[in-house]
Amino acid sequence: MAESKITPRADDYAQWYQDVIAQAELAEAAGVVKGCMVIKPHGYAVWEKIQADLDRRFKETGHQNACFPLLIPMSFLEKEAEHVEGFAPELAVVTRAGGKELEEPYAIRPTSETIIGHFFSKWIDSHRDLPLLINQWANVMRWELRTRIFLRTGEFLWQEGHTAHSTHAEAQEEVRRMLDIYRDTCHEVLAVPVIRGEKTAHERFAGAVETLCVEAMMQDGKALQAGTSHDLGQNFGKAFDVMFQNENGEREYVWQTSWGVSTRLVGAVIMSHSDDDGLVLPPRLAPIHVVIVPIFRKDEEKAAVMEAADKIAAELRDDGLSVKVDDREGLKPGAKYYEWERKGVPLRLEIGPRDLESQSVMAKMRLAEADERGRPQKLTLPMDGLGVSVGKLLDEFQQKLFDDAVTRRDENTISVDTWDDFVAAFSDGQSKFVWAHWDGTGETEKAIKEATKATIRCLPLDGEGPAAEPGECIKTGAASAQRVLFAKNY
Amino acid sequence: MAESKITPRADDYAQWYQDVIAQAELAEAAGVVKGCMVIKPHGYAVWEKIQADLDRRFKETGHQNACFPLLIPMSFLEKEAEHVEGFAPELAVVTRAGGKELEEPYAIRPTSETIIGHFFSKWIDSHRDLPLLINQWANVMRWELRTRIFLRTGEFLWQEGHTAHSTHAEAQEEVRRMLDIYRDTCHEVLAVPVIRGEKTAHERFAGAVETLCVEAMMQDGKALQAGTSHDLGQNFGKAFDVMFQNENGEREYVWQTSWGVSTRLVGAVIMSHSDDDGLVLPPRLAPIHVVIVPIFRKDEEKAAVMEAADKIAAELRDDGLSVKVDDREGLKPGAKYYEWERKGVPLRLEIGPRDLESQSVMAKMRLAEADERGRPQKLTLPMDGLGVSVGKLLDEFQQKLFDDAVTRRDENTISVDTWDDFVAAFSDGQSKFVWAHWDGTGETEKAIKEATKATIRCLPLDGEGPAAEPGECIKTGAASAQRVLFAKNY
Predict the structure, then answer these.
(1) Tens of pLDDT along A284-309?
(2) Cβ contacts (< 8 Å) between B44 and chain A: which residues?
(3) What's the pLDDT band for B70 if we cut at 50, 70, 90?
């Protein structure tokens, strides 16, 4: 058993994050494989829930899963000039296989636009083959220098959608549709509020003509890019000769999109909701919804309490909940409480002889507020109708996590209009989201980053952020059409 | 659209297999990545169904999914002598990453016993940490010389279970439990009958003390190893120092198991059931259970027919079936029929104006027998109660495929007692399963293989194959305790 010490957020936010992950047994650094991680069962179960939700949404919107090779011929990566420039420094390269040096080395896929482009060119012939809507659940590898579990690792798990369309407008619709799916999953399942926007040219995916993104705020006020959706234009179509015959019999290049989210989302969930007692999980992601801790002192109490605990567990499971009865012997209830709190179980039920008499259970929500005596508030739930009241508590908890995250974000978001205020906003301890005007040039973007470490997270889509109104760039004073979102980021 | 020509099995079985895969759009050779394949949406959907069934069974028996690194330090593979000897010739090796030569190269995992052994040694400390029951869904790579889609490819998808136990007996129970799960999935879902047995020392997994397997017969009479379950003894425990403190406070090495099935199972399904018209899928694996083909000549018929087709589809979907209404225009019903037959849809419903009048639909099962006029038999199903009759047809079809495969296997299985009969059995065109006595030595096993190309597929477990009775080795005449299973194999 690992020692149960979690560094408080206020002391060292980065260490707190590592401690929460270790104590909840979500993952660990691989150590022997540079920059890579092992996703442990509790962390993988969270990822499986994210996967299941996204996979359902992808399929409902007509996408089909497939599997393309892990290895990509190096020459493929070089066919799209910006793409190779972006990814070449991070490649892991296979040079030997089957006991021989390879004539042409292979890269382990950092992303699959190139190899999928190659197959699209074989599969697409006519406008009748379009749209082609493919998704792949896969591992990818980017040899990063500075890694952090879940947020940035050498190998990570993700999904990558790749689609081909006959018109640019249809591809653009797809880019937006998938961005909205990411937003919906973040809001409804992860309980992580996100801002949808467009990346600047500098922050765009290597090879895309436009990159849309969803950006979330972590508890330290930094931004985390939670997902991206790219309009690839005809760039990869031209690089890989992906053409179709249109309804007039003319050959045209297809319009492509790609979009992805990764195990980084697990990091986003951890950083959004957890506290100094450990992991906090929204019920829709929790591998265990309810833990039942039976409490008894004497052997003669045990049988009745255990029977009641098992009965409650069976009832809640019938309602589709995942329930753990912690019947381990030789471990005091308090030790069990702490362990399941660290692991982020949303609801704990305690049941002892007195509860049997009163036909009720004691319930404690993760993140319960303190009562008047400074102890975590507990509720008394009648056994009659327990399934309904537990379901209600979990739904409320899901909503509360989202609402709290929105409130925290809004409290740490400001609009500024002068360079001095802008610099000040990124100088104090707590990072912020800052809406400010920008003149639209890469030079200014770079100068601002060098001066403050803040980057442009996105140009907000309609309805996100403050109402669009023209103004003057905080750095140069030049004209600006709308405020953009600045933040320090992961 | 690919040309719809499928080489008959009788002409060229290997080409037939390739043709079925191409025509059903299940997968294709990657070409540009040696020995690897692309699994196309229709093939991947079959794999997803196999995954879902196995994953449920693994979880029901207490296993948890996790994710370990793709890359394995070369030194890890060398820690278990037999293991590295078995896998070294097939490794793909990463020697460069992030723009630099690596000090120690990494192998892309051919299997994960070594890296998982490393982490087990960190995670296991006490008997309370045991049993540790882990599964991983992953891609692995074995650089093979002769590849065949799904059956043997450079990269493939699989699951690998890895467990650690405090006693050898418990590990052996686990090995057998997982073998039985593979048998159950093969029988109940894939409709592929298998024989459970033990591998000879020569055919054992590199590093195991015992390998159990399930062996299936393909339509050409050859054997296909469908899954394996290994008793690793303490071999990897010793190589990776995986120790636990037992209840008496003594340090002991753990007892480990590993077990796996792969995308090879998709190949087993194709080869077991398909015919010269293309793919045949058992309903429990079919991505589409029912295709509805609306039939009309005049526009005024169209609306009513389409409405009925959509209504039937909605009803069947309510029953949990996957239904496709093929409303493509400009394609004749016959062309649609052939396409969905090639893709292995178990049941086709045809609905036209006359069916509307009689309130019935025409139904044709894949593999329908010929009627008296030599045309495939069709059934008339009343629309009233259609869901029930369709469900029944699909259940019967699932059972029929299994029964047919058992019959075919049994008809191609013989017991022989002389060397001449044994040689003859492997000389004629149709391969067979042959039960024969063997003296238990590796020399004889090798001599038999060299003379006939037949290998020992397994020593049958109790209840599999003919009743155990002693006899004399067909090759040497030496004593034998029981007949073993010989076959040519994939």
Answers:
(1) 999 999 999 999 988 889 999 999 99
(2) 64-67
(3) very high
Higher pLDDT, A369 or B455: B455
- Residue B95: the pLDDT is 97
B158-178 burial, b at 16+ Cβ within 10 Å, e below that, comes to bbbbbbbbbeeebbbebbbbb
**What structural domains does chain B harbor?**
13-273 (3.30.930.10), 290-393 (3.40.50.800), 413-487 (3.30.110.30)
Q: Which helix (H) or strand (E) holds A361?
A: strand A360-365
Q: What is the residue type of A231? A: D
Residues 6+ apart with CB under 8 A from A91: A77, A107, A108, A110, A141, A143, B96, B97, B98, B99
> Quick one: tokens of A173?
């619709």
Residues A64/B41, Cβ–Cβ less than 8 Å: yes
User: Under a CB-based contact definition with an 8 Å cutoff, are residues B166 and B261 in contact?
Assistant: no
Considering CB atoms only, which of B32, B69, B125 is closest to A36? B69
Where are the extended beta strands (E) located within A114-218? 132-141, 155-165, 194-198, 210-217
Residue whose pair of structure tokens reads 């980065």 in the numeric block? A14
Could you give the CA distance from residue A27 to residue A264 in angstroms, rounded to a whole number?
A: 12
Of the candidates A48, A66, A90, the beta carbon closest to that of B39 is on A66
CA distance A440 to A481: 9
Which residue of chain A comes nearest to B118, CA vs CA? A32
User: Model confidence over B281-291: pLDDT tens digits?
Assistant: 999 999 999 99
Residues B442-473, buried b or exposed e (16+ Cβ, 10 A)?
eebbeebeeebebbbbbbbbeebbeeeeebeb
pLDDT of residue A104: 94
From chain B, the residues in CB contact with A119 under 8 A are: 38
Give yes or no for A322 touching B (CB within 8 A): no
pLDDT tens digits, residue range B268-324? Answer: 999 999 999 999 999 999 999 999 999 998 888 999 999 999 999 999 999 999 999
pLDDT on residue B312: 97
Of B67, B118, B144, the CB nearest to A39: B67
Q: Strand B194-198 relative to strand B455-460: parallel, antiparallel, unpaired?
A: antiparallel
**Whether residue B97 has pLDDT greater than 90:** yes
In this prediction, residues A62-66 reach a mean pLDDT of: 98
pLDDT at B82: 86
Which runs of consecutive H residues, i.e. helices, occur in B291-381?
Answer: 299-318, 333-342, 353-358
Q: Which residues contact A73 (CB under 8 A, 6 or more apart)?
A: A104, A106, B32, B33
The mean pLDDT of B95-110, rounded to a whole number, is 96
Which two three-digit tokens encode residue A390?
């537990």
- The chain A residue lying nearest B43, using CA atoms, is A66
Distances (CA, A) of A300 to A240, A295, A303, A331, A332: 75, 12, 7, 18, 18
Contact B337, B280 (CB under 8 A): no
Asked if the Cβ–Cβ distance from A30 to B157 is below 8 Å, we say no
Say if residue B1's pLDDT is above 60: no
Instruction: Say which DSSP state B4 is in.
Output: -
pLDDT for A374 equals: 86
